[in-house]
Amino acid sequence: MDSPEIRRLTARAPHISIGEILDHPLFPAARKLYLDRFLAVYDGDPFLVRLLIESGRFVVYHLAVILEAGHDPERPETWFTVGRLKQFLAQFGLGVSQRQIDHLVGRLRSVGFLDVRPAEQDRRLRILKPTERMLAHDRDWLAAHYAPLTVLCPHNDYGPIMRGDARMQVLHRRVSLEFAPIGHKLLTEAPDMMLFFDRAAGHMILAALLHAALEQADDPHVAIPYADVGDRFGVSRTHVRRLLMSAQEMGLVQLKTRGGHCVEILPRLWASYDRAIAGGMFLHDLIYGAATGRTSTATA
Description:
This protein is mainly alpha-helical and 300 residues long. 63% of the residues lie in helices and 6% in strands. It is globular and about 60 Å long.
């Protein structure tokens, strides 16, 4: 996080730092609110979880709304094409092949998240365009990720994002592209979290596990039966079991009984998760500050 490029980006606007977030006395409340809001976006919709919750799929969706926001019909270099999407995905180093990208784009088109049309200036080129269904999901996603900042930084006005303002969404996503190097750096610094992000529904399984723990703070052991979690997020119980067994091998959890009926969350998982979501809050606050032209901010 100390490269000249990242220092330049963090100087774009006043923002709350990762350290300030983790040390904030209201961080536990902000974390709980984030888990509540994040689960609310996807819970009860296994289709949406299977469609988007895995690192490669999520980045395709994320870049789709960002590239669309920066699309300028008068500047071909900004057009949102499959080729440009592949170019940006290659920079993330997520191991998503060109064939996988074509498959994901096709899937998003088939379920009504992406449209395709010929470019008016060059009919040989096909322009991708997120549908209102995808954009509405993105507004919900943004509100969930800004909710904890309303707790930590009440002096900042995140109202337009929290209200789902479409104009602020476009402005925010247009600015976001410039900050991709910070997002990529934060991902590479969270290897424990990538265990979950790289598995289908992994982020949701992790969120459900931690949310259950916070709901019963007086008991270090959590019951998340594999079959119930699998049904909840549209994956098999075997998938859930293998994911948590991998987490156990990494020292993140301890499985006390079979079937997920008694899972102990170890300190390393809490520390890794807290660091990861604090990084996300820091980045979102920075982007919002740059998008709104914030020139000062009160101490958190």
